[in-house]
Amino acid sequence: MSAQNAPAAAHPLAHAVVPIAIVTLVWGCNWPVLKVGVTEIAPLTFRALTLPLAALGMLLAARLSGDSILLPRAWWGRVAVLAFFNIAGWNGFVLFGVQQLPAGRSAILAFTMPIWATLIALAVLHEPLSRRKIVGLVLGMSGMAVLLGDDLRSIRSAPTGTLLILCASAMWAAGTVLLRKWKPPVAQNTLSGWMMLAGWLPLALAAPFFDPHPVSYLTTLSAMAWFAVVYNILLAGTVAHWAWFTLARTLPVAVSSLSTLLVPVVAVVVGIDFLGERPGVLEFIALALVLASLVTVLFQPQEKKAVPDVPHPAP
């Protein structure tokens, strides 16, 4: 077969398109939904309700897929560490932070994660920081700065909330790097389910100390609050976690972390319907910068390899 007739090879990142779309839409929409949920339900109680059911959903998906749901004993310690950073630390800090800041701005601060992840990966994994990755990082963070610059006063008025969100971002970044470094030999849904269960445990134990109300108030929740609970179990908790951990395990840290930068843009825009926030020119400028960042990092051209002609045997 000649080079001209050789079938085109799929782009090495083609498998990432669907997970990126799921993470972007589901988590982007979840920031306003989460804001509604923790307005009526104490933050840790909210996660104590949603995380275990989402985790069981992941383990059920693993079982239905024919994967083992048993976790090798040798990996219990490392999975506990991954759960601490990716689940307990991330959720614990971000839930209290989003109470004090607008949902869209909370998402923007949280998704400074690519900065921390890229720097940690540089030190821990020695991942090469190519020119394209640097350009993508600068473009993406410029988009975040454009969105954030419009609301610095509200952040200065709630410094504790800002610090909590940034701590959550750093915890998530560290967990992402460790996941890439250790590469647990466990099926994706199984690993996600056990991480979520292990990360849920400290949040559930702490919830009674931070929730000032008896749990009986849950019977008086509005329909929107229950929608937030169901959304965080089925979509944000189960489907989006599967998509994210798929990206985190299969892509370089700089690439997987930058692929999340559309999430805060979606969060700001979705805030129109949920929280009355109105996007303007700055939001569209930020969107253009983030899209440019993704194109730069995710769709770099492949090296062309010559395919030699294969002589046909003589008849």
What descriptive keywords fit this protein?
mainly alpha, 72% helix, 13 helices, 315 residues
Q: What's the SSE blueprint?
A:
Blueprint (H helix, E strand, L loop, with lengths): L16 H24 L2 H22 L11 H25 L2 H8 L2 H12 L6 H19 L2 H5 L2 H24 L5 H23 L12 H28 L2 H6 L3 H14 L5 H18 L17
Give your account of this protein's structure:
The two termini are 17 Å apart. The protein has one domain. The protein is globular. The chain is mostly helical and 315 residues long. The protein has helices at 17-40, 43-64, 76-100, 103-110, 113-124, 131-149, 152-156, 159-182, 188-210, 223-250, 253-258, 262-275, 281-298. The longest helix has 28 residues, at 223-250.
Distance between the termini: 17 Å
Oligomer: single chain
State the order of secondary-structure elements, H for helix, E for strand: HHHHHHHHHHHHH
Overall radius of gyration: 21 Å
Largest sheet: none
Mean pLDDT: 81
Number of helical stretches of at least 4 residues: 13
Structural class: mainly alpha
Spans with pLDDT under 50 lasting ≥5 residues? 303-315
Number of strands: 0
Bin the strand percentage. under 5%
- The helicity comes to over 70%
Question: Brief description of this entry?
Answer:
This protein is mostly helical and 315 residues long.
